[in-house]
Amino acid sequence: xxxxxxxxxxxxxxxxxxxxxxxxxxxxxxxxxxxxxxxxxxxxxxxxxxxxxxxxxxxxxxxxxxxxxxxxxxxxxxxxxxxxxxxxxxxxxxxxxxxxxxxxxxxxxxxxxxxxxxxxxxxxxxxxxxxxxxxxxxxxxxxxxxxxxxxxxxxxxxxxxxxxxxxxxxxxxxxxxxxxxxxxxxxxxxxxxxxxxxxxxxxxxxxxxxxxxxx
Length: 215
What we know:
By secondary structure, the chain is mostly helical. Helix content is 82%, strand content 0%. It has ten helices and no strands. The chain is elongated, with a radius of gyration of 20 Å.
């Protein structure tokens, strides 16, 4: 069976795996984004606090994803739980780093002007600082998403959802008729999803970042 015949025969399962893969990455990125921005907001004013936040989240990436899943399986079991934990933790660094850098890069004169017209600290953060820091934060989200697309495939080791199952099945059956087709289908599917997510982020940037700031 050639690759195109394999796709035709397995398209329903591949679509299901693709949806589960995209859903897992999207939901974990939402969690990672909220946590990352909150951590950035809490630490960016302190030089050591921001650096500690970046260093702590960076240290997570030094742990091999397969090892992290293996360590979590005895604690939370197989399936969705270890997948969500690993993807969320691995997605934090680019968001935290860009949130800290973006917030620190806001022009102090603009913050002083907002203070001068009577804005509270919370209002300045929500209406001035975070909107101006949004472009680098969005860049961090894009980087995290691309990274998690690949890491999510490893989650199949812990019976997680997604296209990684297709890749693992192909690797486990190397030498069989459809082994290469399975690996190719899973890999190409992940690449396509990554491109679609990145295109969505480009559109989101155009919709949410004023033209003057983009330029």
